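Final report, section 2: Outcomes. Of the targets proposed, DUF2621 domain-containing protein is the one most frequently requested by collaborating groups, and we therefore present its record in full.
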Amino acid sequence: MGTLLVLWGFLLISLMAIGGFFMFRKFLKKLPKEDGKSVMDWEEYYMEKTKHMWDGKEKALLEELVSPVPELFRDVAKQTIASKVGEVSLEKNQKRITQESIIEGYIIATPKRDHKFLRKKLKEKEIDITPYEHLFELSKSNYRDNWQSRYKKTKA
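The predicted structure is given below as tokens.
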């Protein structure tokens, strides 16, 4: 009976620690940066600014690309990626979200460890990844503050 109580206590403490970790990460995303807006504020801004630019085909592609993400985190991942896709599209002065901007935004928005899932999905869909290799070379940590200038350098 005593070991059951200890195991139950350990389980509760572990679950609270995991929940606290994710709450803390969300709190950090809400903290304002130097420009006065938080990461989440910018995500919402780009989502709102580009929601009219998405067609059904592009939404379906994004949905398919985020399908390997566990369902619990899929909505958060989709919002993060979609906002980065919107940012890329606005940076390029596009009128519509394109397959290219979705792939570029996905690569920029996700950590390097998740790129293998994207490569696999694109291979399944028979989409050539050669034009995006320069983006795969960079890790997410290299994009954080100055992704636009790094993107332009690698594009040129």
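DSSP finds nine helices and no strands in the chain.
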